[in-house]
Specification:
The protein is an alpha+beta fold. The protein is built from 11 helices and 16 strands. The longest helix has 21 residues.
């Protein structure tokens, strides 16, 4: 990757006119979400970005690095906090500054979680296996047995095997192999290859789809995989790779949608703000279909709902934007009607330009809050405390100043 020229862009940005090959254009148009080819009047090529950040290595052209623009965050810290990743140390922090070396940033987060998993030890689980056996094992699969004809001498069996070779571990191994092929850091590549080799002693290396990863359900005994599974899903969902061979160049993209990251950040901030409040909790991504009657039902899904003793007292939506848009306002007003509660639009750091307080005709308030996502620190705890402090103060002031709901003043 380092041998190719780099072009640095930011979210919602556009490049200068570029000279790129047809293969580069084809990859962008057909394989990369988040980067768009726009032709000028003179048939020159410009690249336009959206809310995604990351890196795109084109087959013939430059490497495109897209940095966060909204709120000017420390990307490493923001990603850690949003995904609940709070390692006690990360020796690579100094070389992973915000907006730089994006693949290595994600790989460093992943590597730390992988080390934690391996220190706990891999967890074996029962996996249902379909196999052809010399002797009957488990349950005979009659359909497959009959399909083999009357002369068949072995047995088609279904049985449970206690194994390390589970979809969960195959997902971890798949992502480990992907990142080892992409990172610039020789140190990290070596570590990832070492762990890949250890995993392959017990786990099958194969391509795991995001659909498979999304279906993995953790149990009480495997809950310590939660953080690495979350990162794995992000990587599998947002990555495109073509012809990666160890030690050779490759075309690939890893673009992470900041909208999704910010939604996780806001939900975590809201939850931690009421952790010590008796009877209070925050529900994330709650479906509601009680606003309209008819078929098919129309469902809405606010990013979070704050409840006291099961009753909604505040409904919120996270917006990774630099301006308030009418559609966002209409959306949360609909949430107000459905939940009979005030609403808040939560934005990243915009120097308080977006903070506002409206009264809606339905009697509720519509508020706009900015969180201090621009806090430039590598300390996840400090970052979280500042965001929680701002949100807690906002929540207390909002609820205490709404006298028509007596429970808010308790």
């Amino acid at each position: 990757m380092s041998s190719k020229k780099k072009i640095e862009l930011s979210e919602y940005d556009k490049s200068r006119p570029l000279e790129i090959s047809d293969a580069d254009v084809d990859m962008i148009e057909n394989e990369v979400e988040g980067l768009r080819v726009v032709y000028t009047r003179d048939r020159e090529v410009r690249l336009h970005t959206d809310h995604r950040v990351g890196v795109v290595a084109l087959p013939d052209g430059p490497t495109i690095e897209i940095e966060p623009k909204v709120g000017d965050p420390n990307l490493v810290t923001l990603l850690r906090y949003a995904n609940g990743i709070e390692p006690t140390h990360l020796s690579r922090e100094t070389e992973l500054e915000s907006g730089r070396n994006f693949v290595d940033t994600v790989a460093a987060l992943y590597l730390k979680e992988l080390e934690e998993i391996l220190s706990h030890g891999l967890r074996r689980e029962y996996v249902e296996v379909e196999g052809t056996e010399e002797y009957l094992r488990g349950r005979l699969n009659v359909r497959r047995q009959l399909a083999g004809g009357p002369a068949k001498t072995d047995f088609e069996c279904d049985y449970d095997e206690f194994t390390y070779d589970t979809t969960l571990h195959q997902t971890v191994l798949c992502v480990t192999s992907i990142l080892a092929s992409m990172v610039d850091s020789t140190e990290m590549a070596g570590k990832l290859r070492e762990y890949e080799s250890r995993l392959r002693c017990r786990v099958t290396l194969r391509e795991v789809t995001i659909e498979e990863a999304d279906q993995i359900e953790l149990t009480r005994l495997t809950e310590y995989y939660e953080k690495i599974l979350s990162l794995s899903r992000i990587i599998l969902r947002d990555i495109y790779i073509e012809d990666i061979v160890a030690g050779e160049g490759a075309s690939y993209s890893m673009l992470i949608g900041m909208n999704d990251v910010f939604e996780k950040l806001v939900e975590r901030t809201a939850s931690e703000s009421v952790d010590d409040w008796d009877g209070w909790r925050v529900e994330g991504q709650v479906n509601t279909d009680n606003l309209l009657r008819g078929s098919p039902s129309i469902r809405m899904r606010p990013d979070f709902v704050v409840k006291q003793n099961g009753e909604p007292v505040l409904v919120g939506d996270a917006k990774w934007k630099t301006e308030v848009e009418n559609d966002d306002v209409y959306q949360v007003v609909a949430y107000q009607t459905a939940y009979d509660a005030p609403c808040v639009l939560v934005y990243p750091d915009n120097d308080e330009d977006l903070q506002n307080d409206y009264s809606v005709k339905n009697g509720h308030r519509l508020l706009m809050l900015e969180l201090p996502t621009g806090t430039n620190t590598s300390d996840v705890g400090e970052f979280g405390r500042k965001n929680v402090e701002v949100y807690s103060d906002f929540l207390s002031q909002t609820l205490s100043s709404t006298p028509d709901k007596s429970v808010w003043n308790e």
